[in-house]
Amino acid sequence: MAIERTLSIIKPDGVQKNLIGDVYRRFEQAGLKIIAARMLHLTTAQAEAFYAVHRERPFYKDLVRYMTTGPVIAQVLEGENAIETHRKIMGATDPKKADPGTIRRDLAASIEENVVHGSDAVETARQEISFFFAQADVCPRTR
Ligand code: GDP
Q: Of 3, 84, 112, 119, which is the most exposed, with the fewest CB atoms less than 10 Å away?
């Protein structure tokens, strides 16, 4: 298995509900390492650009509105098979369909307000990491 990097976001509902520590604990217990992190309040233009792939979907406007309702925390996670490992910890998009023990099943309110985002493939991860972080912001572990 390859060492991968992936982009994770704790969305505005997760930050509002004070779930940052809970979510980080799940990442760390799964062996994922946080190698960059920042808090920011997305502008409408930033949220539109980040979710441009969903532009034609009926929920796009609501998604952009939701993602700009409060600050988010974006982080880069590194580890073996990080993209799939992270997606497993997150659970299915709809919390009702997510497995017990996943972030979304345990903590999310709805298919929209589902606490976390995670990249879904190597190329998307690369693009999404560069959306939030310059190369110099990423701090590979030295110990
Ligand atoms: P993800 O990769 O599991 O986050 O799911 P998607 O890439 O398909 O969707 C992106 C985000 O859009 C989701 O995480 C939800 O916040 C939101 N979303 C997805 N499907 C729906 C939907 O059917 N209705 C609404 N209101 N929001 C949705």
A: 3
Task: Name the residues annotated as catalytic.
Answer: 117
Q: What pTM was estimated for this model as a whole?
A: 0.98
- What angle is formed at CA 139 by the lines to CA 133 and CA 140, rounded to 5 degrees? 125
Amino acid identity, residue 91?
Answer: G
> In sequence order, which ranges of the chain are alpha helices (DSSP H)?
12-16, 20-29, 44-50, 60-67, 82-90, 103-107, 122-132
SS3 content of the chain, % helix, strand, coil (to 5): 45, 20, 35
Q: Determine whether 70 is exposed, middle or buried from the number of CB atoms within 10 Å of its CB (0-12, 13-18, 19+).
A: middle
pLDDT at 61 over 90: yes
Which pLDDT band holds residue 132 (cuts at 50, 70, 90)?
very high
Q: Whose CA is nearest to atom 18 of ligand 1?
A: 112
